[in-house]
Amino acid sequence: MRNLLAITKALADESRLRALALLEGRELCLCQVIAVLGLSPSTVSKHMSILQQAGLVESRKEGRWAYFRLADEGASDEAREAVQLVLRGLSREPQGKSDRKVLKSVLKVQPEELCRRQSEQRC
Question: What is the pTM of this model?
Answer without folding.
Answer: 0.91
